Amino acid sequence: MLLAGTATATTTVTATVTATAATAPDPLARFHDQRVDWHACAQGAGDEAGKALDAAGADCADITVPLDYTRPGGRTLTVAVSRLKGGDTAHHVGALLLNNGGPAGPSLDMPLGAAPVMGEVAGRYDLIGMDPRFVGRSTPLDCGWDTGSAFLRSAGADRAAYREEVALARDMAARCERTNGDVLPYVTTRNTARDMDVIRAALGEKKLSYFAYSYGSYLGQVYSQLFPGRTDRMVLDGVASPKYIDQNLLRGAEESNEAALGAWASWAAARHTTYGLGDTRAKVLATVRHIVDAAADRPLRIGAYQVDEHMAPGLIVAGLGSDRDERRAGVAETVRVLARAADRKPAPPSEALAGQLEFLLTGAGSAPSSQMTAILCGDVAERRGVGTYWRDVEKSRERYPLVGPLANDINPCEFWKRPAEAPTVLDNDVPALLVNATDDPRTGYAGARDLRAQWPSSRLLTVKGARQHGLYGEYGNTCVDDSVNTYLRTGRLPARDQSCDA
Can you give the residue ranges of the Peptidase S33 tripeptidyl aminopeptidase-like C-terminal domain (predicted)? Predict the structure, then answer.
């Protein structure tokens, strides 16, 4: 009788709590219930992305969200979204939110690239592009830096060069605190995930489907953890496991990037008559070493720009995220210009390289770099001590001479205020389709396997032997594209993990 009475009391209490929760006022009601004012996307004659969205039949809106979700009655921001409505009403699934990675990758125009790859499947969804908070057309953030690179920088050849990096990182953090200190605690992945849920509610959706590349895959994981049961079909391409989210963007990826460098060197050697970088892999790698050594001696003159030892390695590594011929050709063109400059010969940059140098070496890249830095530092900044970075640089340099000093260099996060929230811990299970190449130089295959183990309900689609970051619609792999589209069409994951050839 005692046990029976206890059970009855427990049931009564549980029912009361559930009823109270169901009737409690929603503190975010004004955001969840806001009227979405859809309008044309173009913002002037020079807005090519906006005009392309308009031409495709998309519309745009600004969603209002709180700066601080613990104080929803306080300051607000706007998050820019686009919508390309699906026409297949008979098979309508709902909204498919798209994210291009980054961190801080603008994604407003992603529906334009997704729709052709999805084919008829696109008609089943309203394709939603989003510029995350403080990115692109959303409420902006800019620390007013003189450089567009806080992370693709190398420590340099010696302690004197490294001290330059320490001073720069400290100054960048201080400048950002002076100009944006009031908002920096809220520039985080967790808050972007909360914005996604406001967008879901404002669109009138019970659940969100989600497709993302790279860092966007981590954003999706955080969303699924914070808002369980609110994801429908989810595809994560180039899986960034929480285990590898770090204030050093490429730490842990040294081996895969050095391997990608070697594979590119073999490719370039086979095209020596075109690029003149060396007719063997060893000779091409020697050309790369010559560039780095010459930049350490004194900066390389490339057109109107000076490229020093901190920037030269990043210009090369930045292009190693793909093994497609056109991407490898871009690296070869860059290295050819750098090699001429290393020989102290006239080295006019290509149009593409000139744009890259303007972004990295002037204030032109300040805003995107500020946004990326703020997200990473807002998520995982920790004080390691200035000396620890140099020790890691020296240790990694022995095995990874180009990538090690870059992946382990100090950055502004060392001098950032501690994050307002701890990093998200995943303890859930989500039925998602995970897509990764075995030799991805950016988000390594180990991260995809880790998430597959964390999410037993998920399935892993592996592309064997590819050195490619971002596969669906990016690699020209019919097997990948068809597999993803089948899942998006049916909502059914494969019975087991699948693989595609490179």
Answer: 409-500
Amino acid identity for residue 85 in this structure: K
Distance CA 193, CA 139 (A): 16
Parallel/antiparallel/unpaired status of strands 76-84 and 125-131 = antiparallel
- Work out the widest C-alpha separation in the chain, in whole angstroms: 95
Nearest residue to 448 via CA among 248, 243, 219: 243
Q: What single-letter DSSP state applies at residue 67?
A: S
User: Can you give the pTM of this predicted structure?
Assistant: 0.94
Q: What are the angstrom distances between the C-alpha of 224 and each of 68, 146, 165, 220, 400?
A: 20, 37, 37, 6, 36
Q: Sorting pLDDT into bands at 50, 70 and 90, what band is 243?
A: confident
What's the rounded Cα separation, in Å, for the pair 438 and 23? Answer: 49
∠ CA 443-447-451, nearest 5°, is 135
Q: How far apart are CA 109 and CA 11, in angstroms?
A: 50
Question: Could you tell me the two tokens for 112?
Answer: 């334009």
Residue 485 has a pLDDT of 98
The share of the chain scoring above pLDDT 90, in percent, equals 92
Asked if residue 426 lies in contact with residue 228, where contact means CB atoms within 8 angstroms, the answer is no
Taking 90 as the threshold, does the pLDDT of residue 491 lie above it? Answer: yes
Q: What is the DSSP letter of 57?
A: T
305 HSE (CA, 13 A, CB side): 23
Residues 462 and 438 sit within 8 Å (Cβ to Cβ):
yes
Torsion sign, CA atoms 216, 217, 222, 226: positive
Do the beta carbons of residue 347 and residue 340 sit within 8 Å?
Answer: yes
What number of other Cβ atoms are within 10 A of residue 420's Cβ?
15
